[in-house]
Amino acid sequence: MSDFLKRTAVRHVKPRLSPALWARLRGDREPPSRPDLTEIAARTGTDKWGVHFYTPHYERHLAHLRDEELVLLEIGVGGYARDGKGGASLRMWKRYFPRAQVVGLDIEDKSFLDRPRLTTVQADQTDPTALRGVLERFGVPTVVIDDGSHRPADILATFEILFPLLPDGAIYAIEDIQTSYWPEFGGQEDPSAPGTTMAFVKALVDGLNHEEFLTPSYEPTYTDTHVRAVHCYHNLVVLEKGDNLEGSNKRKVLRKRFREQPRSSEA
């Protein structure tokens, strides 16, 4: 095509076409799409896809953060005490979040993984001083993933330390919650037994509706008012932090109950 015809097309044809159609007419190739989290997981070899099937769920809850500058803290690096083993999921997160600082906390030394935007910290996941030190060093995480000991007592202790320190909009995930039903990991065979990770999660679900409780003396807990959503999947729970004070219509619907209720008990 001559230069004259090119200039004419740019002047008179291009304004009438969509950018995509103009690019096709020019013979431009469409830019390659970015791999999704599952594709990256398959490349890095993490068990979050294949052994487990967590990555589509994570994609659903984290895609809106992909291009944000953020801190992602994963508890549990993998590989146990074996030299040079572990870190597949940290590499996955680093590739998925191109502007994130990825931090992996593990009770074993995993410093062989350290590189720009990926740093490991050796610490116990239930150590309040160590966890607060991570936040002071790297900043408050927007995403926390507990893939640590999988023992309910450790999971609950870590949550109690970290969750109140996170901002609204943060995502807190707990993996491998099947250990709630395994005594070998501190769980209970009885699904209704207290003290397990799943018992805690079930209480969080009740807490979403705390404003509907009819016990006058009930005082909302921190999680009642700051857990905005609880998403449960096979062996995975994803929590959203945010305001959970929407109000209730119970006084309007249950007029008779509240008319008959003594004033002293309404406080």
Indicate the radius of gyration in whole angstroms. Answer: 25 Å
Q: Helix and strand string, N-terminal first?
A: HHHHEHEEHEHEHHEEHH
**In percent, how helical is the residue content?**
25-40%
Give the tally of structural domains: 2
Poorly predicted runs: none
In CATH, the topology of the largest domain is named: Rossmann fold
Report the average pLDDT across residues.
91
Strand order of the largest sheet: 3-2-1-4-5-7-6
Q: Specify the oligomeric state.
A: single chain
Distance between the termini: 82 Å
Structural class, judged by helices and strands? alpha/beta
Report on the structure:
- The structure is a single chain.
- With 267 residues, this protein is an alpha/beta fold.
- It has 2 domains: 32 residues, no CATH class; 229 residues, Rossmann fold (3-Layer(aba) Sandwich).
- It is built from 11 helices and 7 strands.
- Strands 3-2-1-4-5-7-6 form a 7-stranded mixed sheet, with helices on both faces.
- Strand 6 and strand 7 form a beta hairpin.
- The longest helix has 12 residues.
- The chain is globular and about 90 Å long.
